[in-house]
Amino acid sequence: MSPPTLHTVQAVTGDDVPRLSSPHDDLNQQIIRLLQDDGRAAYDEIGQKLGVSGGTVRNRVTRMREAGMLHIVAVVDPVAVDYESDAMLGIKVAPGIAPSAVAERLDPYPAVVYVMWVSGRFDLLVELVCDQETELTSFLNQHVHGQSDIAHVEVMTRLGMFKNQFLLKRHLP
């Protein structure tokens, strides 16, 4: 393990974000990476790995959370909990309909775990994860097929899983 590094901290970034709250600060990046691996890791444990005190980690996390830069949430890995059925929907919205309107309509349903506005032949990619195959069929029949705001949908069900990075990690500079 390399010796602890001194971290120089500027008071404010170019965007008037306090440096201690900034995700661009080197120590904050390291804290974020460790929290991405285990969001429940103790601050003392993180501090020990980074060569700083647990109080320093707690203060940094608190500042990033208060600044709206960091949210610690639980994310369920659909493969790990062995859901019965999941599908990716490629949706082409009807003419005159904004993709955001369809996204907002589908958003409240628990089976919908991912909605992305995309370019290409679809307007939206929507991922569904269901406890039972009948739930997937029911969702499609009630909320997708025959809906006036959807011109076309392509339903792609999972045949196998090669990689599932369920917690997306942003590249931090």
Can you walk through the features of this model?
The chain is α+β, with helices and mostly antiparallel strands and 173 residues long. The protein folds into 2 domains: 74 residues, Arc Repressor Mutant, subunit A (Orthogonal Bundle); 73 residues, 2-Layer Sandwich (Alpha-Beta Plaits), CATH 3.30.70.920. It has 5 helices and 4 strands, in the order αααβαββαβ. The longest helix is centred in the middle third of the chain and has 13 residues. The chain starts with 25 loop residues before the first helix and ends in a 16-residue tail after the last strand.
Jot down its keywords.
2 domains; four-stranded antiparallel sheet; 173 residues; alpha+beta; Arc Repressor Mutant, subunit A; disordered N terminus; elongated
Summarize the SSE layout with pairings.
Elements: H1 26-37, H2 43-50, H3 54-66, E1 85-93, H4 99-106, E2 112-117, E3 124-130, H5 133-143, E4 150-157
Antiparallel strand pairs: 1-3, 1-4, 2-3
According to CATH, the homologous superfamily of the largest domain is Winged helix-like DNA-binding domain superfamily/Winged helix DNA-binding domain
Placed side by side, the strands forming the largest sheet appear as 2-3-1-4
Envelope shape: elongated
CATH fold naming of the largest domain: Arc Repressor Mutant, subunit A
Q: Which regions contain 5 or more consecutive residues with pLDDT less than 50?
A: 1-17, 167-173
CA distance, first residue to last residue: 22 Å
Q: Could you describe the largest sheet, including whether it forms a barrel? A: 4 strands, antiparallel
Q: What is the CATH architecture term of the largest domain? A: Orthogonal Bundle
The number of domains is 2
Along the chain, the helix and strand elements come as HHHEHEEHE
Number of helical stretches of at least 4 residues: 5
Q: How large is the share of residues in beta strands?
A: 15-25%
Mean pLDDT across the residues is: 79
How many whole angstroms does the radius of gyration measure?
21 Å
